Amino acid sequence: MRRASVVFILLLSFLAPAVSQAAIGSGLYGDAGRFDRLTGQRTQSGLAFIGWDQGRSYGKPYSYFLDTLGSRPHIALQTDRGGGTISPRSIALGQGDAHLIGLAQAISTAAKPVLLRPLGEMNNSKNPYCYVTPSGARKGATHLPRWYRKAFQRVYIVMHGGTAAQLSARLAALGMPGVAQDVPVNPYPQLTIVWNPLAVGEPDVAGNHYRDYFPGLRFFDAYGNNYYHFGTWSFVRTTGLYKAFPSKPFMFPEWGLKPDDASYIRAFATFVRTHRRVRFIGFYNGRNGGPLDLGHKPRALAAYKRFVVPLTR
């Protein structure tokens, strides 16, 4: 689900749900205090969607987000900037490096573990960096999936840091320009870079499947699917994505529902409980009274409290 402006998603504390499964972080987009009262959960950190160069040349500084988003900030990088966008090709060719280097420096200074989700839902035509339009037509050469793959690889390499010589050598091996300065080292898991395709492309056409945008296993630390229930649901495609890369942690950076459907909440919790590589679930509650607000869904709310809350304890 694309955001046109900065939004905040509040993430809940990272606590172990059971001895048999590693810690699961759970999250929320919406009013944290109200959601806490509804569910009994205590929020500790948050997520911001930021445009390209936001924090560097416009808006609040990077430090604002890193200081105010709690103990484990979750940042999603978007390509919107100054009324336009930066293309995947431009990112791959280093034309957006100032933003990456500035953010990497700020993350190092903050000394907090960070989740970074660059160019999420790249196979969702609502996003400007997707290769296809809602009708299934192809965009121009600057948006070819191969440029997305290279752009993501560049983000991964630069954000994790190193000397200019080290970074330039890695980038040159991939056919990309180098960098002109050293970048602070932000190793995994201090910095977790999340590749976030949709399990099913929107639209679901040739050239817009998640494998078309796959940057390679060496270039993401975790991956996952955003999954919403707007009327129908099935975890079949999500299961396929989960199985596709068994060496990596899996996440649901965003999940939510429009109907008051307790069965979806229970099924989601069952999926998380029975798939041991799931490490993060970010519930999208939306604005108070909005179509996704759990506070107006008594059956789903009860199921959330019964089946989801225990996963994060």
List the helices and strands and how they pair.
Layout: E1 8-12, E2 25-29, H1 32-39, E3 43-50, H2 62-68, E4 74-77, E5 80-81, E6 84-85, H3 88-92, H4 97-110, E7 114-118, H5 145-160, H6 164-173, E8 191-195, E9 222-224, E10 227-229, H7 236-244, E11 250-257, H8 262-274, E12 278-284, H9 298-308
Parallel strand pairs: 2-12, 3-4, 4-7, 7-8, 8-9, 9-11, 10-11, 11-12
Antiparallel strand pairs: 1-2, 1-3, 5-6
Describe it.
It contains nine helices and twelve strands. Helix 2 runs parallel beside helix 4 (97-110) and helix 4 packs parallel to helix 5 (145-160). The radius of gyration is 19 Å and the shape is globular. It has helices at residues 32-39, 62-68, 88-92, 97-110, 145-160, 164-173, 236-244, 262-274, 298-308, and strands at 8-12, 25-29, 43-50, 74-77, 80-81, 84-85, 114-118, 191-195, 222-224, 227-229, 250-257, 278-284. The longest helix has 16 residues, at 145-160. It is α/β, with parallel strands linked by helices. Strands 1-2-12-11-9-8-7-4-3 form a nine-stranded mixed barrel. Strands 5-6 form a two-stranded antiparallel ribbon. The two termini are 28 Å apart. 30% of the residues lie in helices and 18% in strands.
